[in-house]
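BUG: 3D viewer hangs when loading the predicted structure for this chain

Environment: internal workstation, default settings.
Expected: structure renders.
Actual: progress bar stalls at 90%.

Input used:
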Amino acid sequence: MTSIHVKIKNLREEKQFKQRQVAEYLGISQQAYSYYELDKREIPSRHVVNLAKLYHVSADYLLGIEPERAGSFDLNATFVQGVTLKDVMISLKRLNKSNKKEILKFLSYLSSTQPAAK
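Structure tokens produced before the viewer hung:
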């Protein structure tokens, strides 16, 4: 289970926010916020709620009660064999338009050949 301090750092980096920006949103100093990410200070519940709103995730996800982000993806989570979803997205972005279309066709084909989930 990923700790809250790791999750908030990953979410901040996904959104390409600086610690200073998140700290200002929370109404605290950048140093105080950095202590949250470094797990040197416990995060007050009001900040957990505000961070959940900022990142459009549930407080339960941040606290580790829910393992997955509802309606969203954790780009830093392992996708398959140690490769993250972020790695997959970066690779897809590098493809030319023609190859992107081919990938979509192939994904559609693979999806259609899978047995239905039970």
